[in-house]
Amino acid sequence: MAVRGLSTMRKFLPYRFAMLLVLAMIAVTALACEGSATVVPLPSATSEPTASIGSPMTESTPTATAVSSTPTLAPTVTPTPTATPDPTEEFFLYMEAPGQDEAFVDSEVYEVTGRTTVDALVSVNDTIAQVDEDGRFRVTVSLEEGPNFVEVVASNTAGDQASEILLIIYEAPAA
């Protein structure tokens, strides 16, 4: 009986070694892919034959259980492009509308537009203007009949500042 048990053990020894090697490779791959792995216990070296009632006695064969190592991917976030200031660009404030410091209009609203450096913060009569990637900005101001002073101020984090005071004269159309 001892000789038969030894031959049976020799027969399954290469199989168990191969299973151990496969499980080790799975664990290393999982660690490399995920940073952590679930350890699956190996079948014991003294696996005993099992028998069930009503069936002939059979020897149990150890089987490997696959562990899913599929990583869960987080949704990707696409960053919103932002304008990068050009360090060689000199700070400036240029008014496009009105083209001069003074304008005569016949409308109750006027759109003040201009350009500056992309890193500038612009306010028009204390209303913050959105500066686009080209340094352009626009703000619509409400006017009262007669002269209206509009102050445009641009500044950046380096401490540079420029301002313009515009005179927009609103004359209501004759009825």
Structure report:
The structure is a single chain. Helix content is 19%, strand content 29%. It has one helix at residues 2-34; strands at residues 93-97, 102-105, 109-116, 121-124, 127-129, 136-142, 146-155, 161-170. It has a five-stranded mixed beta sheet, with no helix packed on it. Strands 1-3-6 form a three-stranded antiparallel beta sheet, with no helix packed on it. A hairpin with a 5-residue loop joins β7 and β8.
Please mark out the parts with pLDDT under 50 across 5 or more consecutive residues, or reply none: none
Order of helices and strands: HEEEEEEEE
Please outline the major beta sheet.
Answer: 5 strands, mixed
Oligomeric description of these chains: single chain
> What global shape is seen?
elongated
The strand line-up of the biggest sheet is 2-8-7-4-5
Strand content: 25-35%
Question: Helical amount among residues, as a percent range?
Answer: 10-25%
Global Rg? 40 Å
Counting DSSP E segments of at least 2 residues, the number of strands comes to: 8
In short:
With 175 residues, the protein is an alpha+beta fold. Helices cover 19% and strands 29% of the residues.
Keywords:
elongated, 29% strand, alpha+beta, five-stranded mixed beta sheet, three-stranded antiparallel beta sheet, 175 residues
